[in-house]
Design brief:
This protein is of the alpha+beta class. It has one domain. The chain is about 25% helix and about 35% strand.
């Protein structure tokens, strides 16, 4: 396996919607497996309209009934592979059909997070219609303090002549209230590292009038599931 030593790799385990007592047990088992950061999917919204970078967004990696996501960051591809196997073993233990995603944060075009699934993750299969490169812009706040999706779309259109492909709201609360902290993630799917880095640079100099918390660009190494 050839790769440039990465800065940060993220491993995500996506869990379908299940009753809360079972979800709590899944979270506990994932923590034992090394993945203790868990957030619930509150809303997943795909957008359409003028300004799409790639037209209709990839949707193969989206669960039909998304429940929660467990995340772990590492600087080692080998550790990421171990976490993927451990996390997916937890889902098997609970007879759940979820999937995993491995992403590397991009800072330059020399970085490469590609893996050979036939060698490195032979027990899994890739999920069709999944993204290869992404930009994310993340807001954090309560439901009433966050900018609306419509405001975010207009901000993107006015500043970058594009619009996000997808919005996802996450929370540590399974049932949100007016006081719940929500992470609103706007995602733009990209055709290349170059496109990711160009938008990343534009975001760094554009006025942050909507007060987002941070933005990142990523290469998606693989989205996979059980064979």
């Amino acid at each position: 396996m050839k790769y440039t030593q990465p800065t940060i790799i993220e491993v995500h385990i996506a869990i379908p919607k299940i009753p809360e007592p079972i979800m709590k047990q899944v979270f506990a088992d994932l923590a034992v497996a090394g993945m203790a950061k868990n957030k619930y999917f509150i809303a997943v919204t795909n957008t359409t309209g003028e300004g799409m970078v790639l037209g209709t967004p990839p949707t193969g990696h989206d669960l039909k009934t998304p429940g929660a996501m467990s995340t772990k960051k590492t600087t080692s591809i080998q550790e990421a592979l171990v976490l993927i196997r451990a996390g997916m073993n937890v889902l098997r233990k609970h007879n759940l059909q979820g999937n995993f995603e491995m992403e590397g944060i991009l800072e330059n075009e020399e970085q490469d997070y590609s893996i050979d699934m036939n060698k490195d993750l032979v027990e899994f299969k890739p999920v069709p219609d999944s993204p290869a490169y992404e930009n994310h812009v993340v807001w954090r706040g309560t439901a009433t303090s966050l900018p609306s999706r419509e405001e975010i779309i207009e901000w993107f259109r006015n500043n970058f002549s594009i619009i996000p492909h997808q919005f996802v709201d996450f929370s540590r609360d399974s049932q949100t209230s007016e006081d719940s902290l929500i992470s609103r993630v706007a995602t733009i799917y990209q055709p290349s590292k170059k496109a990711v880095l160009e938008l990343k640079n534009c975001l760094s100099v554009a006025p942050n009038i909507l007060n987002y918390a941070y933005h990142i660009g990523e290469q998606v190494s693989i989205v996979g599931e059980d064979k």
